Amino acid sequence: MHLYLVRHPRPIVAANTCYGSTDLEVTAEELALAHASLLPVLPKKAVLFSSPLRRCRELSASLAETLGCQAPTYDERLAEMHFGDWEMRSWDDIPRASVNAWSNDMVAYQPGGGESVLQVAQRVRAFRDELSGLNIEHAIVICHAGIIRLLAACEHGLSIPEMALYAAQKPHKIRYGELLVVDC
């Protein structure tokens, strides 16, 4: 299977804001830019999966129509990590001690009382395992940088805790609207 992992377009949010699972909009311009850049490189009639968050949902719906795919399957397991009471706060306003506690335990700590990377890894692995059993040649997944990192980590044959640690320790440079292709 060829897995096409796409990060959503840039959402409407202030810089330096923690916004994991918050359901943010994207501008029509950002959506059009991502759509135009992805259209020539994504396979037609592929099976399309998406995070249910609006910044992914809008892109997946427009791509499905243009690529001749069936309607996207919106899967909660593809939503970005929930940062609890850190959501929509400036990173500068989050107590340094809390950020340090997360840095000291990137896998199990639940930032803001939300999800841990381990919990997110468990749901992402469940999605990936289910996807493996579908006998699909091309799958497009519209999601978030954290989810892309975890899906890519699945391909290394790691246990779920190792997958979470791998994704948490590896800084990402996944741009908005960027595509990563993984041959499974």
Description of the molecule:
- This protein is an alpha/beta fold and 184 residues long.
- It has one domain: 3-Layer(aba) Sandwich (Rossmann fold), CATH 3.40.50.
- The protein contains 6 helices and 7 strands; from the N terminus they run E-E-H-E-H-E-E-H-H-E-H-H-E.
- It has helices spanning 28-38, 54-67, 96-104, 117-132, 145-154, 160-169, and strands spanning 2-7, 17-18, 47-50, 73-74, 89-90, 138-143, 179-183.
- The strands form 2 sheets. The chain has a 5-stranded mixed β-sheet.
- The longest helix is centred in the C-terminal third of the chain and has 16 residues, at 117-132.
- The chain starts with a strand and ends with a strand.
Ordered list of secondary-structure elements with their pairings:
Elements: E1 2-7, E2 17-18, H1 28-38, E3 47-50, H2 54-67, E4 73-74, E5 89-90, H3 96-104, H4 117-132, E6 138-143, H5 145-154, H6 160-169, E7 179-183
Parallel strand pairs: 1-6, 3-4, 3-6
Antiparallel strand pairs: 1-7, 2-5
Pfam family, one: His_Phos_1
InterPro entries: His_Pase_superF_clade-1, His_PPase_superfam
Protein name: Alpha-ribazole phosphatase
